[in-house]
Write a structure and sequence with these properties.
By secondary structure, the chain is an all-alpha fold. It is 77% helix and 0% strand.
C-alpha cells in the first residue's frame, strides 16, 4: 500500500508540475490550445472583456480538462500495473480496483462537466 501511495503522490506531483505552468500560460493568454490541435477550447481568461459567466465557464472547462487528464492517467497507471502483475492475483486485484476507481472518477468528472455546462448555458440564456 505504501508503494501505491508513493506512485500516486509521484504522479500527482508530475501532473502538477505540468498543469500549473500550463494553466498559468493559458490564463496569461500566451498559450493557445487551438494551436495545439485541441479544438475549440479557449482557456484565456481575459477578465476585462468577458462576462462573469464566460469567465466561470472557462475556469470550469480548464479544471475539468486537468481532472480528466488525471483520471485518464490513473486508468493508464492501473493498466500498466495490471500488465506487469505477472499473474499475481493480489496485484491484479489492486490494479482492477484502481482502474475501477479511475473509471468512476472519469464518469463523475464528465457528469459534473455536463451539469455545469447545462446550468451555465441556461444562465446565459436567462440573463440575455
Amino acid at each position: 500500500m505504501k508503494k501505491l501511495t508513493k506512485h500516486l503522490l509521484s504522479l500527482t506531483l508530475l501532473i502538477s508540475l505540468v498543469a500549473v505552468p500550463a494553466a498559468t500560460l493559458a490564463s496569461s493568454g500566451n498559450l493557445n490550445l487551438n494551436d495545439l490541435g485541441v479544438g475549440e477550447i479557449d482557456t484565456t481568461l481575459d477578465l476585462g472583456r468577458r462576462s462573469p459567466i464566460e469567465t466561470v465557464t472557462r475556469l470550469i472547462n480548464t479544471a475539468m480538462i486537468f481532472l480528466g487528464i488525471i483520471a485518464v492517467a490513473i486508468i493508464l497507471f492501473a493498466g500498466f500495473k495490471w500488465m506487469t502483475a505477472g499473474g499475481s492475483d493480489d496485484k491484479i486485484g489492486e490494479a482492477r480496483k484502481l482502474m475501477t476507481s479511475g473509471v468512476i472518477g472519469l464518469i463523475i468528472i464528465l457528469s459534473a462537466w455536463g451539469i455545469a455546462y447545462f446550468i451555465l448555458e441556461n444562465a446565459v440564456q436567462v440573463t440575455q
